[in-house]
Amino acid sequence: MRGTEIHLEAEFTWPAKCLPFVQGAPEEFVKKFIPGPEHLEYTVILPPGCSSYCDSVGLKSGTERYSIQRRTNSSGREEISLMADGVTTGTRVGMKLDIK
Predict the structure, then answer these.
(1) Which spans in 1-97 are helix H?
(2) 2, 39, 63, 100: least CB-packed within 10 angstroms?
(3) Which residue has the higher pLDDT, 8 or 91?
(4) Euclidean distance between the first and the last CA atom of the chain, given in angstroms as a whole number
(5) Is the peptide bond before 35 cis (omega within 30 degrees of 0)?
(6) Which domain of life does the UniProt lineage start with (predicted)?
């Protein structure tokens, strides 16, 4: 129905997507949304034993509200999560990660 709120959860698997990343090159984990979502949560789970520097992509302080948080999950792997509200339509948003 038009105007009805929905919740969508998507899991993406890209074979070899992270190969440059685990070999030491920075990598962007981004998506483009049309229309822009009111709320976005995006989590990257790192390979065992890895830790990463992270930065936002396509998000500007004061324009969209966002945060990046890291935690260690129950398997001991680092998870980096991006949470954003008011994402601009058509903007590539996500995170750039670089192995420490």
Answers:
(1) 19-22
(2) 2
(3) 91
(4) 47
(5) yes
(6) Bacteria
Confidence check: pLDDT of 98 > 80? yes
Judge if pTM exceeds 0.90. Answer: no
> pLDDT digits over 48-60, tens only?
888 999 998 988 7
Q: Can you tell me the distance from the alpha carbon of 97 to that of 77, in angstroms, rounded to the nearest whole number?
A: 15
The sign of the torsion formed by the CA atoms of 17, 86, 3, 89 equals negative
Helix (H) or strand (E) holding 34: none
Sheet holding 52-57, edge to edge: 27-32, 92-99, 52-57
C-alpha to C-alpha distance for 44 and 80, rounded to whole angstroms: 5
pLDDT of 42 over the 80 cut: yes
The predicted pLDDT at position 63 comes to 59
The two three-digit tokens of residue 14, written as one number = 């890209």
Residues 85, 18, 95: CA angle, nearest 5 degrees: 20
